[in-house]
Structures are given as structure tokens and as C-alpha cells.
Amino acid sequence: MLSIVTITLKGIFRDRIFQGIMVLSVLFIFIPSVASLSMRQVTELSTTLSLSLISFIMLLLAIFLGATSIWKDIERRYTFSVLSLPVSRSTYLVGRFLGIAIFMLIAALFLGSAAIVSIKIASLTYPPARPLLWSAIITSIVFDALKYIIVVAVAMTLATVSTSFFLPVFGAISTFLAGTVTQQVYDYLQTPSAQAAVSVVVRKSALVLYYLLPNLSGFDLKVHAIYAIPLNTQGLLLSAVYFLIYIGIVLSVGALLFARREMK
Amino acid sequence: MIAIETAGLCKQFKGKKMTRVDALKSLDLQIEAGEVFGFLGPNGAGKSTTIKLIMGLLKPSSGTASIMGVDSTLTDSRRQVGFLPENPAFYDYLSAEEYITFVGSQFRMDSSLLKRRTEDVLKRLDLWEARKRPMRGYSKGMVQRVGLAQTLVHDPDVYILDEPMSGLDPIGRALVKDIILDLKRRGKCVFFSTHITDDVEKVCDRVGVIVKGSLVAVDLVENIMRSGVEGYLVHLRLQDGAGRNFAGIEPLRVAGSTSEFYVSCSAFNAFMGEVNASGAEVALVETRRRDLEDFFLSLVNRP
Fold first, then answer.
1. Which CATH class is domain B2-225?
2. Is the ipTM of this complex over 0.85?
3. What is the pLDDT of residue B242?
């Protein structure tokens, strides 16, 4: 599996689309200047912009890498060569996933470092009202990476059954969008007004989707990072456990589906 | 020992409008270790489907396939195989050297042995100079040679090659034939598909012909060549009476004292008896036979 992880990483680093996406990180240079235009809360705005830029780049990477990696291997017929080696399909799938997941963490480290420099410059120029909570900023970046690794797993699982890139690309985007609001929808449906206004069928369907789709809101710690709010360790631990279990389930389903796929 | 075996192997694909297409119909095949087996068939006959089933890339609709006694649906069945897919494609961002190393690592080769074998196969397939370049810059023939190199690197007992000569120039084709003959000398089993009969005639021990998903013939190449003898062209040097006939057979041509006769297999003994009795000198006997291509075409065109 290690060699599959290695070739996956080599493939990502040598890909021109990835290089193009990473050029976006140049925008970190402009963040302190742009934030200074707000005249107040410059550091907070710098933090917001930096974390949002990381999120945007990571989303692009997750969609691009997660949705196209398996699909491209099948489309370009690389799978005929690789799957005829003594490699099980599940090993291949997990190896590809781990390669991308490791890359996402490396990208988070690189982008996070650029963000920290950017936020530091802004905070030195315009000291914030509340001291910066670096641990919250770093944890927010790490959990952002975990969130997008979940999106990668979903995209790869969709790619195991898809014959085109539409399903993995748009499926992953839809899952990401839905995953960020499932918790709010669930909370709303528990309120008395929703119980009265929403039909039972819709409520049951929403409940099924709540358990089926990833709950990504637990990975969004931007508010803690921007306003220096101390983190809830127990909540973080719960999110980390959820991450591992959800990834495990999604990849197991992906491996089962991929094992049944015919390589025509 | 049987290297490759299929028993009642069938494959159906879903066609348009809920129809079913029988790509492969109950294939029974046994290929011995050390044997070079040519799998002949026209385009769309089911050659690649068979190979994909043996390699576990497709699931059989019914029947079984095994390699060295291990069921093809198991990952371990591929541990002693070198496989070249039809029109191979490899991670084009990797160099040939990186890819061969990757393949060797999947077979758990010792790193020093892998390094040595990688160098050997790349040199043998004339890829040494280009070994560090990404494969996206390779020609079709070079990619095909990388495909062959990755089948050889771990020195397996069984080779399954789907159209190995495809995309190669005459030098490349000669090289592949040499490699197959070398593998044969070393007691390896080679199963390769092709629609070029000349390839089979030169390197194979046995040939199977598949037409429309059914195996229509399996025989030793030697038997086919022998059974294909239709007659003989006999050149006789006659001191006198050039142009005379023997056993009722008239000469085709007469040039000076030499007469040329076409003699069918059934008339050969009587003809030669009369020739011997007459004291005529036999200058040359040429065998007239149907070649493998004629044999193949007769099977393919059979109603």
C-alpha cells in the first residue's frame, strides 16, 4: 500500500492543475493590505480572510483530487495495469485515498503557515482588541483539512461506481454543501414550530439524510479562531472520532462497490 | 503442471434494449507450465475478454479460471504472473524506471534484486536511455516496451500478453519474439493473444482459435502445419524424354532437361515409384501447404 501512496503523492505534485490551484496561495500576500481597508478589526478580518482562503483552496483540491483520481485511472486505463498486479481493489482504493489525505494535510501545513505569517503581520500592524489564540487558529486549520478529507472520501466512493466525472464532482460538491447545513436542519426540525409546520415524511427523510450525509459543522472552528474563543476539547475529540468512523464506513462502502466493478 | 485453466468460462454483457451479448461461451482450456500458447481470433472474438477474466478484471457470468491452481478472483492468483494489457497505459507522470520499481515492489522483491532486474529489463528493451523521462513523452512503441519490461521484472512463471506485438516496429516485433522464445527455453508459460498468424507460427507450441466467443480449435502448431500439407512440387532432371508424364501426371513446366510436377499427397507414392523405376534424378521436392493463416481463415469463415 505504501508504494500506492507514494505514486499518488508523486502524481499530485507533478500535476499542472494542482500547481495552478496552489498559485492561489499567492493571495495570502495581499490579505493584510485588504484587511487594513476595514479600518477596524483588521486582525480579525485577516484571520477570516486567511481561513476562508484556505477553505476555498482545500475545497478545490478535495474536489479535484477526490473526484478525478479513481475516475482518471479508469478512464485512462491505468487500472488494467495496476489491478492486474497482486493488489486488491480495496488496497488500491485505500492507498489512493491515503495518498490524497496525506497531501491534504501537507497542503494544510503549507497554507496554514502562509496564513499564520499573514495574520501575524496584520496583528503586529494593527494589534487586536483580544490577544490572538494561536492554538485555535491552528486547530481550525487542521479540522478544516479533516473536513475536506471527508469530502475526498465521499468523492472517491462515488467515483468507484461512476462512468463519468459528473457524479463524483457534483456529488462531492452537493455533499459538501449539504454536509455544512445538516446540523442546522436537524436542530430546526427538533423545534416545536418545525414539528407543526413540516410533514412527517419530510422530517423522516431529513433525519435519514442527517445520518447518511457527513456532518461537517463540527469541523468548522473559524469563529473560535477569529474571536479567540477557547476550544472545547471534548467536542474536538468527538469530531475526530466521528471523522475516523465516517471515513471508515464510506471507504468500506467504496471498497465493496469497487470490488464489484467490471474493468471492461 | 497446469499453469492456466478455464472451466466452462462464460461472460455475458448487457447489450442495448435489455439484450444480452455472449462475449464468451463456455471456454474450457488448459495450458501447461512451460508451454507457449497462441490465442488467435479476429477482432471482437473474445480474446481480451478471456484474458480479463483470467486476470480477475472481469467477473465470469459462470465457470472458473485459475492461474497456477489459484482461483482468478483471488489477489494471490496474480502473484506469479506478468501481464501485458492490450494497448497498455501506465501512470504517465512516472518515468519507466519509477514504474518498473513500483511494479517490482508490488511483488515484494528485495530492493537490491529489484534494482538489478530493473536495469536488466530496461536495457533489454532498449529503454535505458529514456528511463528517467516521464512516460507521457514516450512513443506508443516505447510504452508497449515498458509494458513488456514490467511483465519481466519479477521473473514470473506465467506470462499473459494481450497483443504484445501491437504498436511495435519490425525491430520491436523481432525483439518480442526473441523474448518469448527465450522464456520458452527457460520453461516459462506464455499465453498470448494475437490476430497475426505469423507470430503464432514462429513462437507457439500450441494454438487456440476463438471465433464469436467460442473456442473452435485447439491444436499443436506442428500438427496444423503437418495436416496443412496439400501436395508437393517435384523437380526432375531427365536425360531423355523431358516432358513425359509419371503415374499419369503431366509436368507443369519443362525447362531444358528439367521438368516440374505438382503431385498431390495421395498420388505421391505412385509418382515416386515410377520416377525411381525410370532412373530419373530428383532435383528438388518442395512441400505445398496451407499455412496457419489459411487454417485460421478457414475456421473464421466456416458457416
1. alpha beta
2. no
3. 67
